[in-house]
Amino acid sequence: MTRTVSDARNRLLGTASGLFYAEGLHSVGVDRILAEAKVTRATMYRHFAGKEDLVLAYLAEADRATRQNVEAGVAAATNDADAVRAVARGIAGHIQIEGFRGCAFLNAVAEYADPAHPVHIAVQAHRKWFLDTVTGLLARVGDTPAELDGRHFVMLRDGAMAAGCLADPGPIGDTFREAVEGILRARTAPQA
Amino acid sequence: MTRTVSDARNRLLGTASGLFYAEGLHSVGVDRILAEAKVTRATMYRHFAGKEDLVLAYLAEADRATRQNVEAGVAAATNDADAVRAVARGIAGHIQIEGFRGCAFLNAVAEYADPAHPVHIAVQAHRKWFLDTVTGLLARVGDTPAELDGRHFVMLRDGAMAAGCLADPGPIGDTFREAVEGILRARTAPQA
DNA sequence: AGGTAGGGAGAACGTTCTTTCTACTTCGAG
DNA sequence: CTCGAAGTAGAAAGAACGTTCTCCCTACCT
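Predict the joint structure of the above. Result:
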């Protein structure tokens, strides 16, 4: 019942995630991860089938963290429009943090182009969840179909995440949030 | 004066570009490029200092092609708003082409995270040109400062390019162009 | 007391990577 | 005619890669 769930495994996944995100999937070798996590090869291969499994676990953790952030933001909102704003605020805030290197999922597909690859599939699943979630939130604001606005929101998010590590993240976050306000404005006061 | 400029060099850069774009920078090895281009190692190292030089040449060619496309679209436009629309149409069209795998520059920074790396610097230069160009075009529509709208346009572009190879590119292109129309609308008829 | 899971340490495998090298051919310009 | 640039062909170096392996130690559970 003590269920340590392995301290070494946590260190392994933690440092692997940090390195993968900061430097890229192919750029980081197993040796680097083992050295930095102070874990031996045998231990790693006891917990993960291989490097690819580590990558998948890294993305799964990122997916879990994102869902938690979104759900927390939505839960704290007092109305439907504010729920959308909360998601946007979370993204804008995420861009500002030290060491931000873009979207872990978009960066991953840049390295795993094959659509049939497990990594690519994991990214697709995450993106489908996000698009569906945002579209659902937007549908509760106003009474017009929200599919286009959902895609619009995700497009802004993807662009903000991409540019956030290539330009001053402050103005990027501001631009993003103002653009989201534009979407909400158009939904609350439909075409003139 | 015959200046063949080397047929082998062209084949080399051409197939290297195709492979780099389709499969990623780190995923493609020199051997693959040499085999596919039917060029020997010695010839390649005669023309390029190394693989990194090939990557840089690939990005330089992509930069040149993009600038040409934008300039052609702008030149064909009959007024300032249509110039912006022409750029947007070019992007939306680019997303639809078979084999589209996202923005070559955004994909490149995903693999070369170090801001001091030549690849990263080349991407920054390309992006600065694009942002400046778009902001300049938008400044001619309406008479308000265009910096925010320029960033907004680029954000939409980055998002559209990122999503274009992860979802049905048709709706993505439509969403992008409609969002750009929103920017133009806001500039021609300022706040109510 | 003994079995077993988790971890440490490190050797070694075979592959692939980028790069360098030598040796021979081709061809056009001076 | 000759020189040199550009090409072919292939060996090989040297490093890094992901993976597998053996051996030993510790801690916990029964």
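Residues 4, 6-9, 39-43, 46-47 of chain A lie near DNA strand C (CB under 10 Å from a C1').
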